[in-house]
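Pipeline run #58 for the internal structure catalog. This entry was flagged by the ingest filter as a single-chain record with no existing model, so it goes straight to prediction. Upstream metadata was stripped on purpose; only the residue string is passed forward. Reviewer on rotation: M.T. Logging verbosity set to normal.
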Amino acid sequence: MDSQPFTSDTIDALAAAYPLAPRHLQHRIADHPLLQLDALAALARRLRPESIEFNAATDLPLGISNDETPYTGLDVHETIDRIESCGSWVLLKTIDQDPAYAQLMHDVLGAIEPVVEPRTGAMMRLEGFIFISSPQVVTPLHFDPDYNMLFQARGSKTMTFFPAGDKEMISDRFFEQYFNGGPRNLPWQEEWAERGQPITVTPGEAIYVPILGPHWVKVHDEVSVSLSLTWRSEWSFHHADACRFNSRLRKLGLRPSSPQLYPADNRLKSYSQRALVRAERMMGRG
């Protein structure tokens, strides 16, 4: 890897978009040895089983629910070995549990810290993920509860974005269910397609993925390898707790106002939720 993962122009481009807008960027880590398929196969053998997801992923409807996602009958190692032809998607989660990948993550995210921290504060809960995908694989419509930089290392894919504040696509109730343990795949309506903003990446290109914004992904005609590095902020944790607090209010028959989007904060509801959780824990111990 070059001494710096980004050029100064890329840092400036990220600064112009962060944290609200998706942005097409450049990077210098596509040829990193840790992102080659043989290294990833070895990583999959080292990771804990709960850190690996894999399933069939071609010809999926954009609105498929999490529990409807099909499997091929292959184990993860067979899936990686046959990734060119098995029509599958492999996700290696929290790869930062491996020291070499943790170092790569910290080196890369450290380079954007001067952009991130003045806007959204300290970068918290840093995590790394790798997607290994067969040609033509689809990742259905979903949202992410964190900020994300996706780096393309092999193949190409198109990610299509929708606004985080579109209540028709992602409702308050959906957020409330998700932050109480529910799924994050979203329903899909074909008339939403024209609202999408597609961004295509090839090796050496990256996308900044804004927090909470719905998006879906389509791999092109070759095997794809992508590195996803994510982080949270104090604002993101307050938003999540505000959603949990709203869920409590709704169960009482109330109609709570929506959590506010950045840069407005949700501290009052968040602190109320946290106080209730602490009280419930104390009562449980009693």
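catalog note: The mean pLDDT is 94.
catalog note: The chain has two domains: 8-232, 237-285.
status: ready for reviewer M.T.
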